[in-house]
Structure formats: structure tokens, C-alpha cells
Amino acid sequence: MNAHPWGRWMQGLRLRRMRRRLADPAYAFLLDAPPPGEWVALDCETTGLDVRRDEIISIGAVRIVGERILTSQRLELLVRPSRGVPGDSVRIHRLRERDLAQGLSIEEALARLLRFIGSRPLVGYYLEFDVAMIERAMQPWLGIGLPNERIEVSALYYDHRFQQMPPWQQQAPDIDLRFATLMADLGLPQRDAHDALNDAVMAALAFIKLRRLRGAK
Fold first, then answer.
1. Which pTM value belongs to this model?
2. CA nearest 14: which of 149, 204, 131?
3. For 158-197, how does the pLDDT look when each residue is reduced to its tens digit (9 = 90+)?
4. How far apart are the C-alpha atoms of 49 and 26, rounded to whole Å?
5. What is the CB-side half-sphere exposure of residue 209 using CA atoms within 13 A?
6. Helix (H, G, I), strand (E, B) or coil at 31
7. Which has the higher per-residue pLDDT, 123 or 6?
């Protein structure tokens, strides 16, 4: 969160507005102060990349406390889509319609996800897309989007690589932000990609490593 007084005031105003719009007071915990030194790494697999029409079909999330990834505190959900799963999508994440037939409804999946996340900041790789997909589904019944702080792993990595460059390279930086490149450059183990929980765990590993490289406590 922004430590500047103006930033704190704006954040307080934003939270007050969201509290007024919240359709279900049972989810008021989303607007609480986050527990210090805790985050949740998050990833979603979807039927495609169109935020307006594609659907979430799996969600993976894992809690981070300090420099520890609590794999015992993880969330792995399959979500039943309202329409068929395109073949191109199946080839990427290997989830067929039969695999998802007994999945949760999107409403039940998001209810579980929100309780798992609480007010903790979110960590992810190209997290903006995942958050947009979640918010499209949650706003009609909850009245608000996700209030949580978002931390983009690719942005942290970009800053890290940029700072390592000599001044003449910083004028036109060419930084490969592909997930596999990022993980390899940081010397981190890679799991099978396009699995929501695996991707969440890898984002958590990268987040912890990049914070350590920045000297964050």
C-alpha cells in the first residue's frame, strides 16, 4: 500500500465506497487490514483470453508467510463452465469437459477463493487478467471487485533486470518477461506450466526470490 498520506487517504476513501456497495456483509472481511507479512499467490486457467466472454475453469492459490510458501494452505478448484471448452484451450491446460463436469459453480468457487484470500495482497504472473476474470464473475452478486493489493511478478522482475543494466542499455531495455525465462534466470525450479496451482507456486517462488534480491524484510 502507498505509505504517502495522500495515498493512504485515497485508499481509505476507496475502501469506504466499497463497503457501502458491498451486497453481502458476510464478505466485509475483504475490506479489513491485511495480516502483516502475508500474501496469496493466485492463478486461474480459462477457456480463452477474452475477458468478456471466456470462463474460469480452474483456480490455484497458495499462502505466503514471510519467506515461506505454505503448501499445506493451498486451494485447488475445478470450475464447471456454462459452455463447452474449446479444443485449443484443452491443448493448453489439458482440462476436458468431462474433467470439469463435476466441478464447482463459479459462484461457489469464488466464495471459497474469497474466504481463502481474505484481505491479503495478491501475487501473480500477469495477474491483471486473472483479477479481471474473477471480478467479472463476482461483481454481479457481491457488488464490488477485489479490493486486495496486487503484486505483479513480471513487473518486479523487470525492475530487477533494469537495475542490473549499464546506463547505455537502460535507454532501450530489452527484457524477456516470459515465465520460463524469468524462473530460469532466477535459478528457481519449474513445474508443469498451465496448471493453476503449479503456476501459483512458481509465482510465489519468484516473488520471494525477488523480494530477497531487493533486500526486503
1. 0.91
2. 149
3. 999 999 888 877 777 889 999 999 999 999 999 887 899 9
4. 31
5. 18
6. helix
7. 123
